Amino acid sequence: MITFTTENIFFIGSFIVLVSIIISKTGYRFGIPTLLLFLFTGMAFGSEGLGMHFDSPARTQFIGMIALSVILFSGGMDTKFKEIKSIIGPGVLLSTVGVVLTTALTGAFIYGLSRWSALDIQLSLMVSMLLAATMSSTDSASVFNLLRTQGIGLKNKLRPILELESGSNDPMAYMLTIALMEVVVSGTQMSVPHLLLTLSEQFVFGGLFGYLAGRLGVWLINRINLPNASLYPVLLLSIIFITFTLTDMLRGNGYLAVYIAGLVVGNSSLSYRKEMSTFLSGLTWLLQIVLFITLGLLVNPSEMLDVGIVSLAIGVFMIFIARPLSVFLCLVPYRSMPARAKVFLSWVGLRGAVPIIFATYPLINNVEGASMLFNIVFFITIVSLTLQGTTISLLARKLKLDMPEEKTGNEFGVEIPEELDSQLYEVVLTDEMFAAGSKLSEMNIPEGTLVMMVKRGKSVIVPNGRLTLEKGDILLCLSKNRQ
User: Fold this and answer.
1) pLDDT by residue (tens digit) across 124-174?
2) Using only C-alpha atoms, what is the Rg of the chain?
3) Contact assessment for residue 77 and residue 267, using Cβ atoms and an 8 Å cutoff
4) What's the rounded Cα separation, in Å, for the pair 463 and 40?
5) Burial of 382 (0-12, 13-18, 19+ CB in 10 A)
6) Averaged pLDDT score across all residues of the chain
7) Once rounded to an integer, what is the mean pLDDT over residues 51-75?
8) pLDDT tens-digit readout, 227-248
9) Residues 269, 273, 277, CA angle at the centre, nearest 5°?
10) Rounded distance, CA 68 to CA 187, Å?
11) 78 within 8 A of 104, measured Cβ to Cβ
12) Nearest CA among 21, 16, 7 for reference residue 52
């Protein structure tokens, strides 16, 4: 059996990451979610695979906290207010009421299985609800990853709804998990007023601290004059971790705080945005890989098989009954939304790393039967990623909800500082545009617009007025202001 030590952890860890990335490239061609492949890679290298021993729920939870903080902040930073402004209502309902409904429906089903089925599962009502709460949120890492890597464009503003829901429902699931676990551990009756007070406290403090941290972060980044541009992403990373930790210490919800902070930072005028976005993108990928590999190393596949039938029954109920019921009930006020859009939202309720991380809390707190709960959650996560994750694109096409993904950036890879009240845009030349001549100086270019570069095939030309243009040339134009 191979054990991680100080001497070999960098080599073994790097080797596993390398192998998982190579495998994910192959799997991507067949539409298999890359995060699922990272999970399988960890299982393959684990104690029942190649023999690497890792058995620390506490360390897994710590890695999960770090990863989720960055993933949620990055997701919030990439979410634009103008895109979510019109869908805040359904998004917030799904991320709050939807989580509670999913927990209640699934918990009742699990308790029913325990009481009246022949399956080997004996769980009290509160433990059943606790198990359901750990799985009640859609996983932000999985949803963000699938939507972006598969390049899915969606109609009816479904993409911003999904991203808002998956980025903001983890805090609700976390609070329910902690509250129910405290009831199970203490053996006391659950007090609904106390639960509501705790949830309100976490939401208010989490939202407030997240907003203040975001505003302070923007102010600091725009005003501090660091000697090296590479230090700005490091500064942003420190802000993320301070926001999460300080909010948690002050009885707020750290996950909600970092998501709100990301929203504020991402929708503000920001210096060195490109450097920080590139840094966060790479770091998010690394943390997702490390997180899923770690989760794969932690589980013992043989133990999962022991709860396979129970897990499959719960998973099928969640996917085909609990999630659709929750979505349709939450969206009753939004009658203008087509039924096929609600069906799609029902299907994209992916489970991923977050439920597994939440399932480590009962393990660490010695809840009776916690190892069984963990294995059930892990099994359902694999089912969800496999069944739902591989069919998102297909279902979007079948329901006629797919559309070309909106293009971001430009062909030239050029960006300009946000402080300039200007914008870049591209113009592709057609035959009609050569009516006055083919030279750049003869083009009908609006006043206040500068043609910075011309792309012809694979060549990029820095133009002057004498340049002869051709059909199909792409002009990179800079206009005076964003309006």
Assistant:
1) 999 999 999 999 988 766 666 666 666 667 888 888 888 788 878 888 898
2) 25
3) no
4) 52
5) buried
6) 86
7) 89
8) 888 899 999 999 999 999 999 9
9) 135
10) 30
11) no
12) 16
DSSP 120-188: S----HHHHHHHHHHT-SPPHHHHHHHHHHTT-EESTTHHHHHHHHHHHSHHHHHHHHHHHHHHHHHTP
Closest CA to 350 of 180, 130, 92, 102: 102
Amino acid letter, residue 71: I
For residue range 388-411, what is the model confidence (pLDDT) as tens digits?
888 887 888 899 887 766 666 677
Residues facing residue 461 across a β-bridge: 454
Q: Residue 266 carries which side chain, given as an amino acid letter?
A: G
Q: Which residue has the tokens 């917030």?
A: 92
For residues 229 and 179, give the distance between their C-alpha atoms in angstroms, rounded to a whole number.
43
Q: Is 302 left (phi over 0), alpha (psi -120 to 50) or beta?
A: alpha
Beta bridge partners of 3: 53
Q: Give pTM, 2 decimals.
A: 0.82
The three-state DSSP-derived secondary structure of 358-411 is: HCHHHHHCCCCCHHHHHHHHHHHHHHHHHHCCCCHHHHHHHCCCEECCCCCCCC
CB atoms within 10 A of CB 321: 14
Residue-wise pLDDT for 84-134, tens only, equals 888 899 999 999 999 999 999 999 999 999 888 877 788 899 999 999 999
Among candidate residues 24, 9, 19, the one with its CA nearest the CA of residue 54: 9
Which pairs with CB-CB distance under 8 Å and at least 24 residues apart come from 364-371? 364/57, 364/58, 364/61, 365/181, 365/185, 366/185, 367/127, 367/130, 367/181, 367/184, 367/185, 368/127, 369/123, 369/127, 371/303
- Whether the CB-CB separation of 354 and 173 falls below 8 Å is answered with yes
Q: Which residue has the tokens 């300009």?
A: 416
Q: What distance, in Å, lies between the first and last C-alpha atoms of the chain? A: 64
Nearest CA among 179, 84, 102, 87 for reference residue 138: 102
What's the one-letter identity of residue 115? R
Residue with tokens 């996560």: 381
* Contact present, 169 and 95 (Cβ < 8 Å): yes
Q: How many angstroms separate the Cα of 277 from the Cα of each of 27, 60, 139, 407, 408?
A: 26, 26, 21, 17, 13
Residue 271 vs residues 228, 232, 241, 352, 409: alpha-carbon distances, Å = 13, 9, 20, 34, 17
Alpha carbon distance 280, 301 (integer Å): 33
